[in-house]
Amino acid sequence: MTQTSPNEPFNESGAAVADYRQQAREFLAKSRKYLADDDLHQASEKGWGAAAWMAKAVADAQGWEYQKHPQFSVVLNNARRVTGEIRLLGMAGIANDLHGNVYTRKRFLDPESIALSLDQIAILLDILEPLTQNSTA
Question: Is the pTM of this model over 0.85?
Answer without folding.
Answer: yes
